TrEMBL record:
Organism: Myripristis murdjan (pinecone soldierfish)
Superkingdom of origin organism: Eukaryota
Protein name, as recorded: Phospholipid phosphatase-related protein type 1
Cell compartments where the protein resides: Cell membrane; Cell projection, Neuron projection
Phosphatidic acid phosphatase type 2/haloperoxidase domain span: 127-271
Entry's family note: Belongs to the PA-phosphatase related phosphoesterase family.
Transmembrane segments: 12-34, 70-94, 126-147, 256-278
Short name of any one Pfam family annotated for the protein: PAP2
SUPFAM superfamilies according to UniProt: Acid phosphatase/Vanadium-dependent haloperoxidase
Function: May play a role in neurite outgrowth and neurogenesis.
Key word Cell wall biogenesis/degradation present: no
GO molecular function: phosphatidate phosphatase activity
Length: 347
């Protein structure tokens, strides 16, 4: 039998298995096909042979970058997961925060012997939503790169067009033929996937989501600067990741800014609209406040006649009847005199 701290539900496990896991699996598969296969061809964007913005030196492969993709993706995925797990376990173990946690979450009873602890539910919810947003951000970035075909700053260095040929003979001739490039086709195709910046999007998504979790759940009474330093350090790391892409001529400034906007938008949407600022679903505090307001006694006041009602009900004769013994001017009419005339006419 369900008590005040428990809630009976027979649909939470079927919904998790047949709805949420299916959506998550489809998202992961779509991200895999867009990232690791050639199922979606990149749009071939035209260019000028003497465009100075596309003639930066080739910085080398992605693995030779100051922040290699493998290390970046591991940190982006593992750091928020570890901090959320440690934070939830710590709040559940500590007595000072456990009562507030149990007040926000209820134990779900799915059968006669199946109980879902609030700690497990919160960990699965927050980490699951974070993983979904990470794959969704990767899908958005790959879709933007495939559709736009943005050229990297080093595109002409790897494209190696024939400057003595017919296409590049004139300086202001726009080239729309993708077969003009004589460089490595794999490197040239990667150079066409610059907008938006994937590293900037994933890093800022992870940083914003983690910052929202820290500011919403972790309470530090003894130190006022520990939480701001941790949050600002996380955001600064994402910002430096974007700057590194620009300094190595791997992305334009506009590519990095677009990546920052995309990652921040996904993190804010999931943090505010999906996980409710990392608050409990069954919050007893808000319900208690609502019941307290409903139980307040009502105070009644006697009805007082407004002067406006007197003005509305006053007959037309009030405007034409002179007041005996009072000198009046045709250009000035006192409000008090008008109300006095109206009362005399009514009586």
């Amino acid at each position: 039998m369900a008590t005040n701290n428990t809630l009976r539900s027979y649909s939470i496990i079927p919904c998790f298995i047949f709805v949420e896991l299916v959506i998550m699996s489809g998202t992961v598969l779509l991200a895999y096909y867009m990232e690791c296969t050639d199922l979606f061809s990149v749009h071939v964007q035209g260019f000028f042979c003497n465009d100075a913005e596309l003639m930066k030196p080739y910085p080398g492969t992605e693995e030779s970058s100051f922040i290699p993709p493998l290390i970046l993706y591991c940190v982006v995925a593992a750091a928020p997961t570890a901090i959320i797990f440690i934070g939830e376990v710590s709040m559940y173990v500590m007595k000072s925060t456990r009562e507030a946690l149990l007040a926000q979450e209820k134990t779900i009873v799915t059968g006669d012997c199946c109980y879902l602890n609030p700690l497990i539910r919160r960990i699965i919810r927050f980490i699951g939503v974070f993983a979904f947003g990470l794959f969704a951000t990767d899908i958005f970035v790959n879709a933007g790169q495939v559709v736009t075909g943005g050229l990297s700053p080093y595109f002409l260095s790897v494209c190696k067009p024939n400057y003595t040929g017919t296409e590049c003979r004139f300086n202001h001739q726009f080239i729309v033929n993708g077969n003009i490039c004589t460089g490595n086709p794999v490197v040239v195709e990667n150079a066409r996937r610059s907008f938006p910046s994937k590293d900037a999007s994933l890093s800022v998504y992870s940083a914003v989501y983690l910052t929202m979790y820290i500011t919403s759940t972790i309470k530090t009474k003894s130190s006022r600067l520990a939480k701001p330093v941790l949050c600002l350090g996380t955001l600064c790391s994402a910002f430096l990741t974007g700057l590194n892409r620009v300094s190595e001529y791997r992305n334009h400034c506009s590519d990095v800014v677009a990546g920052f906007i995309l990652g921040s938008a996904v993190a804010l949407f999931l943090g505010i609209c999906v996980v409710n600022n990392f608050k409990g679903i069954h919050s007893a505090t808000a319900k208690q406040k609502t019941e307290d307001y409903r139980g307040l006694p009502l105070m009644t006041f006697p009805r007082v006649e407004s002067p406006l009602e007197t003005l509305i009900r006053c007959p037309k004769a009030c405007w034409e009847t002179p007041l005996t013994g009072v000198r009046s001017s045709p250009t000035r009419f006192s409000t008090g005199r008008f109300l006095l005339i109206c009362r005399m006419q009514r009586h």
